[in-house]
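Milestone 3.1: sequence recovery, worked example.
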């Protein structure tokens, strides 16, 4: 076994998503309350003579090499710092892809956090402020800056207006991914084309948070199975709140006790990816040393 630097990349959950009828260079004005889950990807990295990338062969989800946001983050970091260091990278991918959980953005964000840590340890380099990796992150995607923080947040504007929030900790989150991807671009395009921008639904709240998603009508018209998932979530005993995260296709439920999730097989079969656990606040010091079990790769 070899020793690597390791960093966690947590999944992002949109408790709500309000799309405003305003546009800037084709972008939508958004408002959203988000939190980050204990569902994480793990990124392992060590210095090398060449850039290499490998994924855990036991994972259900595998990153398309052409859409590797970890390497895109490394290239972005190099373009801003002129650091020519190469890396051996291993990804333990647990967050579903194309599911509205921000997995790619989380991986890119965690990579930037890790690279800054390593770069700033070198006494020959001028230290990079945290504001610099936020700039890099915003150039990679609108979700990346919030994933750099990975805490309870309120987002507004075009992804750059971020405020710290505190949501209740004593709840459990059920994640249901119906094992098909939805293109964010397609969902937003469909949203722009339909006349009914506001999805009519019963008011659902979690503590003082309004659970709502402006993209639900668009997503369900493209993928009707999402309605089935939401209807099943609604029937779970003692469900506190439920909804769709991001642009879909993942849906979520919130319960007070783990005992409320003991009979999930009554509602969901093995065609679904199911995860449950709690949310967490992460910090920029979540880098550690770790032994890599190479037989997994």
């Amino acid at each position: 076994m070899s020793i690597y630097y390791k960093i966690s990349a947590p999944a992002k959950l949109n408790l709500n998503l309000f799309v405003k009828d305003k546009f800037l260079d084709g972008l939508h004005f958004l408002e959203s309350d988000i939190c980050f889950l204990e569902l994480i990807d793990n990124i392992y990295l060590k210095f090398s003579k060449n850039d290499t990338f490998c994924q855990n062969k036991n994972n259900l989800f595998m990153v398309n090499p052409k859409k590797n946001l970890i390497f895109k983050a490394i290239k972005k970091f190099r373009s801003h710092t002129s650091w020519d260091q190469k890396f051996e990278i291993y990804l333990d991918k647990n967050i579903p892809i194309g599911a509205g959980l921000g997995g790619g953005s989380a991986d890119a964000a965690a990579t930037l956090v890790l690279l800054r840590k390593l770069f700033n340890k070198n006494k020959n380099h001028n230290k990079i402020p945290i504001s610099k990796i936020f700039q890099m992150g915003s150039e990679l995607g609108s979700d990346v800056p919030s994933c750099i923080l990975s805490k309870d947040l309120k987002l507004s504007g075009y992804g750059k207006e971020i405020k710290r929030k505190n949501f209740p900790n004593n709840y459990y989150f059920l994640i249901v991914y119906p094992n098909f991807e939805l293109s964010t671009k397609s969902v937003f395009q469909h949203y722009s084309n339909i006349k009914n921008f506001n999805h009519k639904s019963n008011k659902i709240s979690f503590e003082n948070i309004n659970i709502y998603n402006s993209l639900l009508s668009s997503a369900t018209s493209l993928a009707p199975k999402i309605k089935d998932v939401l209807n099943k979530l609604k029937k779970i005993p003692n469900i506190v709140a439920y909804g769709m995260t991001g642009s879909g296709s993942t849906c979520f439920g919130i319960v007070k006790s783990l005992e409320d999730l003991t009979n999930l097989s009554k509602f969901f079969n093995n065609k679904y990816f199911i995860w449950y656990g709690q949310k967490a606040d992460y910090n920029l010091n979540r880098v550690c040393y770790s032994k890599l079990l190479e037989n997994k790769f």
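Residues 2-164+282-296 form a domain with the Ribosomal Protein S5; domain 2 fold (CATH 3.30.230.10). Helices lie at 69-81, 103-121, 130-140, 144-149, 184-193, 216-222, 225-234.
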